[in-house]
Specification:
Elements lengths: L2 H76 L6 H15 L2 E7 L3 E2 L48 E12 L1 H12 L5 E10 L10 E12 L25
Antiparallel strand pairs: 1-3, 2-3, 3-5, 4-5
Helix pairs in contact: 2-3
Organism: Leifsonia naganoensis
InterPro entries: Transl_elong_EF1B/ribsomal_bS6
Protein name: Tfp pilus assembly protein PilO
Length: 248
């Protein structure tokens, strides 16, 4: 082998070593750094997208905030914290005037602890016992009566944080005006559950013809502040008749 060929071979080997060294020492680390940067960029972009979605939801919620506050205020007036009887009396006075009836009497009893009632269990189906002898002709089976809607029960409402106060109101007026009063009582700002309603001719002989005295009994409800007694528990022999549920 002559010197020229040997020189060429050595030169090729040196160039190959230079190229390989440049790749491993220069290019490959840069490519790895670029790949790592792209991975971090994708991760940051994903995080930004998540935050952008959360921000959009917060912006939408902030737009609904006035409506939510108004709904909260309505619910707080419907079932206030504490008895808040003075505000309810103001509501009654305004309703007397608006309905064109006269208040004869109104009474507020002590609050009683709210006691939810569990829905009644379905009666088990009875199976007739077989009898000996000839098989009787089959008779049509009556369709089962559909069960009523079960009461709504929430574990958040207990006797310690919810109370019902019996209220009785007697008003005097024409029958249509009395019905308007009862309707306003049920749809007013304060939640009121009517449990009884009765009418008799007005005791006042000087009243116009057709005037009636109507007695409306029911319950108003309130939240009991933590650490306070929610009301006297109903005991056997009393006539508290605390309702199992109420809806407005």
């Amino acid at each position: 082998m002559d010197k020229n060929r040997l020189w060429i071979i050595c030169s090729v080997l040196v160039m190959a070593l230079v190229v390989a060294g440049g790749w491993f020492l220069g290019v490959q680390p840069q490519l790895a750094a670029i790949a790592d940067a792209e991975s971090q960029t994708a991760s940051v972009q994903q995080t930004n997208d998540t935050y952008a979605q959360a921000l959009a939801k917060l912006k939408k919620d902030s737009e609904d905030l006035p409506a939510l506050k108004a709904k909260l205020a309505s619910l707080a007036a419907s079932v206030p914290e504490g008895s808040d009887i003075p505000a309810f009396i103001d509501q009654l006075n305004a309703l007397y005037t608006a309905s064109n009836v006269v208040c004869v009497d109104q009474a507020f009893s002590d609050a009683v602890a709210y006691s939810p009632v569990a829905p009644p269990a379905a009666a088990p189906a009875s199976t007739p016992a077989p009898t000996s002898g000839a098989t009787p002709a089959p008779t049509p089976t009556p369709a089962a009566t559909a069960a009523g809607v079960p009461p709504v029960v929430s574990s958040l409402i207990t006797a310690t944080n919810f109370a019902a106060r019996p209220v009785s109101v007697t008003v005097r007026g024409q029958y249509g005006d009395i019905l308007n009063f009862v309707s306003g009582l049920q749809s007013g700002a304060r939640l009121f559950l009517v449990t009884s309603f009765s009418t008799v001719p007005a005791a006042d002989t000087a009243a116009p013809a057709g005037t009636l005295d109507a007695k409306v009994s029911g319950y108003v409800f309130s939240l009991t502040p933590e650490g306070q007694d929610g009301g006297a528990p109903a005991t056997p022999g009393t006539s508290t008749d605390a309702p199992a549920q109420a809806s407005k």
